[in-house]
Amino acid sequence: MTPERRERILSVLNKRQANLTVVLENVEDPHNISAVMRTCDAVGIQEIYVLNNKAPRHKKWGHRSSSSADKWVTAYQFDDLEACVTALRSKYDKIMATHLAHDAVSLYDIDFKGSVALVFGNEHFGVSEEMLAKVDGNFLIPQMGIIKSLNISVACAVSIYEAMRQKMLAGHYDKRGLPEARYNELLEQWGYEEE
């Protein structure tokens, strides 16, 4: 491994954020999932959760749209909503869903300095009622147009870039965010070798 490659891997791992994740519920198009993975990698999200309890489990993601992000981002797949929520609750303090409800808060009012999981739903039906019953709140992305929805990968990108902006201002990217054991596990997985 070249010194440049080693430096790049260490730089990326040092900016990974352990207290932010994305949950994709019954997203049908594997290219949407891949696009989300690519954006997660870009903002330093290491783990995403893919719940398919109303659609078949994805065997592979859309490679072109991921630009091989699936090598660098860990995707956990679930076919049981309760198991997915339990896994999220074990790592994240708050679960927020994109949903146009009367009590939904603006994306810009979420405090991303804490530990947050963001849920994005199916391309046609959004987040399920079952998932909405399990989350801590709903949020929306302010929009000025007639169409009040965005493509899932775009909605996710807008949301997690706002999270990144807040985290950068709070200094989260200035210190290592991953626990030591997870950091070392990823170092080994990514082919980093100490000299």
Task: Give a quick precis of the structure.
The chain is an alpha/beta fold and 195 residues long.
Architecture overview:
Helix 2 runs parallel beside helix 6 (152-169). The chain has a single domain, classed as SPOUT methyltransferase, trefoil knot domain (Alpha/beta knot), CATH 3.40.1280.10. The protein is α/β, with parallel strands linked by helices and 195 residues long. It is globular and about 50 Å long. The chain starts with a helix and ends in a 6-residue tail after the last helix. The chain has a seven-stranded parallel β-sheet with strand order 3-2-1-6-4-7-5, with helices on both faces. The longest helix is centred in the C-terminal third of the chain and has 18 residues, at 152-169. The chain is built from seven helices and seven strands; from the N terminus they run αβαβαβαβββαβαα.
Observed structural traits:
195 residues; alpha/beta; Alpha/beta knot; 7-stranded parallel β-sheet; 7 helices; 7 strands; 16% strand
Record the SSE blueprint.
Blueprint (H helix, E strand, L loop, with lengths): L2 H12 L5 E6 L4 H14 L3 E5 L11 H4 L7 E5 L2 H9 L4 E5 L6 E2 L9 E5 L8 H4 L4 E4 L11 H18 L10 H10 L6
Parallel strand pairs: 1-2, 1-6, 2-3, 4-6, 4-7, 5-7
Helix pairs in contact: 2-6
